[in-house]
Write a structure and sequence with these properties.
Length: 205
């Protein structure tokens, strides 16, 4: 099974479930940039509930379709410090945050100019730490895949509800669905693969 995904900022758990059970991943690289999507945001669990981490971008002329692969990250904003601080505040008490903290800081030490390059970098970083090996290729033209569009959209309920796992602050907020894979990594660590494998029957072809 081939899965088509729009590169996102730290892939969300629902998309990661789909990715885990595909044979080949194709990254959509010929689409236009769309707001209110996971292209420049991800969600983490904090003491106050679900928090969006947004990457500032260099805005281009409004009223025109802008290719996703041309979107630049606004490097004048100190978003890196803010995101690292928020992630540490959220997951410092999780079982595996300290284990992966150095890797996280290494990742953020070199931010590419283009948003799509950064998102692909965070994807490969996540898959590496979760020991997930997949064949990854890039599209040669816009594919307009329905499931890919559903998965990248942030302002809607996830297209499937995954089984719960132990999250930080779960006693306060209950299980939060649709979070970044960072949540899975810091809470489950090496056991994340077992969890992802168990979600297979939730996927509808």
């Amino acid at each position: 099974m081939e899965l088509i995904l729009h590169p996102s900022y730290f892939i969300d758990v629902v998309s990661l479930v789909h990715l885990y059970h595909c044979n080949q991943l194709m990254l959509e690289t010929h689409d236009n940039y769309v707001k209110q999507t996971y292209r420049n945001r991800c969600y983490i669990a904090t003491a106050n509930g679900k928090l969006a981490l947004n990457i500032p971008i260099v805005h281009q002329k409004s009223g025109h379709s802008v290719p996703y692969k041309s979107i630049e990250i606004n490097q004048t904003d100190d978003w890196v410090t803010q995101h690292l601080k928020s992630i540490k505040s959220a997951y410092n008490s999780s079982p595996f945050y300290e284990y992966y903290e150095a890797d996280l800081h290494d990742l953020f030490s070199d931010i590419p100019k283009l948003l799509i390059d950064w998102n692909i970098k965070t994807l490969k970083w996540t898959l590496h730490l979760l020991h997930i090996t997949k064949s990854i290729i890039s599209s040669e033209e816009y594919l307009d895949d329905i499931r890919a569009r559903q998965l990248i959209t942030a302002k809607q309920n996830p297209i499937l509800s995954t089984h719960s796992y132990i999250q930080v602050f779960q006693e306060k907020h209950g299980f939060l669905n649709g979070l970044s894979a960072l949540d899975l990594l810091f809470n489950l660590g090496p056991s994340a693969g077992v969890y992802l494998k168990e979600q297979q029957y939730l996927i509808k072809e």
